[in-house]
Amino acid sequence: MEFHLRLILALFSVVGVVVVGHAADLPSEIYWKKVFPSTPMPQAVRESLRPERRKEWKPSNLGQQRLDFPATVSVLHDDVVRSMFFLGKDLHIGNKITPNFPYNARSTFLPRHAAESIPFSTRELPQILNRFSVKPESLEARLMKDTLEHCEAEPVPRSEHHCATSLEAMVDYVASKLGKKGVNALSPVIPKDTGAMQYTVSRLTVLGNDDSSLACHKSNYPYTVFFCHTQASTVPYAVSLLASDGTRVTALATCHADTSQWNPKYIGFQVLKVNPGATVCHFLGEHDVLWVRK
């Protein structure tokens, strides 16, 4: 199923949004600058604002993986997703690691008033699928259902989550948790189409802790939805990686130390063959956003 550009443009037209080239700020960009005047917008976020840059929705197996949701068979057998997990003891300078950085689900933000006019619940899934011309038996329909179920589920112990269906909603949620001043928004810097490569960890920087950071993961949905969450005993890192051919990646990773209450079938445990209680780390996807209080 292709989520065509004309559908996004039609939604923008209905709500009276006019896109004038690349130079003019969209209302969502203006709102970002109003709330976070000293926080530059990551390129990964900016790419999801311009409808002409995303011609169709392209789902990805890399999405939010809730701690209490068992990993699906398809995800467990996805080598790209599996490569994103590693143990805390493996995160040190000089260590070699072989991630295959995937793309996130490709989609475009809708303005807040457009997003809020569209149903967003499992109860209304048939209506949503019809609106976006998605066949109920399709892969896209299953992924949309998964996203809605993740958003509606009760938070796991010592965590909190919120699904932001617009950039404005994400900005408001982050501001309510981290404040409006001294906040950084970071996304990985990953060269396109690198594929699976072996890298050496050349630099490692601790960016904060669970009280001063939160992550927003781009979800599988026809328009951009971010699954934003906090989790106790989580440490975020900037990880500089260098390949033998000179390719450099500035990756972002989070390590979870308190995993004793997590579902034993969590994908990280199964991939790494460890039990709850182990320190599990994973890289963030290309269009995920890590928010950190300076």
From TrEMBL:
Record's keyword annotation contains Acetylation: no
Signal peptide: 1-23
Coiled-coil residue spans: none
SMART domains: BURP
InterPro entries (alphabetical): BURP, BURP_dom
Domain of life: Eukaryota
Boundaries of every BURP domain copy: 85-294
Pfam families according to UniProt: BURP
UniProt keyword terms in alphabetical order: Signal
Entries under PANTHER family matching the protein: BURP DOMAIN PROTEIN RD22, BURP DOMAIN PROTEIN USPL1-LIKE
Protein name per Swiss-Prot or TrEMBL: BURP domain-containing protein
